[in-house]
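From the thread on structure requests for the teaching lab: each student submitted one protein with a one-line request. Submission from student K.M.:

"Model Ornithine utilization regulator from Pseudomonas chlororaphis, tokens only."
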Amino acid sequence: MLHSHLTTLNAVSLVLNTFKDQGQDSEALLAGSGINAADLSRADTRITTNQEMLVCANAVALQRDIGLELGRRMHVSSYGMLGYALLTSATLGDALRLALRYPALLGTLFELSLEADGELIWLTAADYRENPALATFNIEFCLVSMKVICDDLLGHPLPLRGARFDYPAPDYQGRYAERFDCPLQFDATSNAFAFDRRWLEQPLPLADAITHQAMAERCRKQNTEFTGRQAWLGRIRQLLAAQLDAAPGLEGLAEQMNCSARTLRRHLKDLGCSYQELLDELRFERAKQMLCEDDLPIYRIAEALGFSETASFRHAFVRWSGVAPSQFRP
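Reply posted by the TA:
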């Protein structure tokens, strides 16, 4: 999969701060992500989902149940303008429907929905398409953070009637009871938590119609800009992916995008990446796919990815993954 979606630094900053509290240096957490200190100092920095997931994978390697802890720390104030719009909504239902309308601003990797089941409402996280090895982590992070948002909006904990997960109970399932405080079901058919329908009509203590209207409009504009950037970056990735065996270079790509090399370089910088970083990411994704699915010799894979020498490909793959191509093969 090509990770064309952009996201904010919210989750990455949360990971770093959480482990900083535990005395862990950020270098190990950022390893391989291409994110540096300068990126972290800019509030408008946008990173790819792939970069975010690399940091999360490093975090899970250090602490398997970190998704539950990160979700607990992801308060509504972490979502900037969207968080303010949610806080000033008239009811909990209004706030949740607004959040689900803008998944790009929410930064979720799931299709979130509110599903009625008699007198219960299930907040469901579905359609996960990222790294399968991080599925449990992302489900934990998503559902716990959504529960925290509900608690923050109400000003008190939202009583849950149940929570279910489509994977076996982990060996730290006791931590789930702390986060959800309700009956738990594992090996279920979906990932969701339930609450009484009546809570959707609950007025919020910080509701303000005028402020909410202004914030909701700003969210709409921000979402339009954000998704436009995603589409633009997706087009670049599509062009590069189709010509990995003979990459066009920055100027060649700019010509294909109908802009100058200077403009393309500036736009990529604004998105927190560079031509070479995008090319490397696409080559890495394709290399992993070919190594796992094909029986091609290493030198043929190197040629398909545009490397003139097999040794150059081997060095690059070690830099990307930490292991040689032959070791990566199943």
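TA comment: The domain at 6-210 is CATH 3.90.1520 (H-NOX domain). The longest helix spans residues 209-241.
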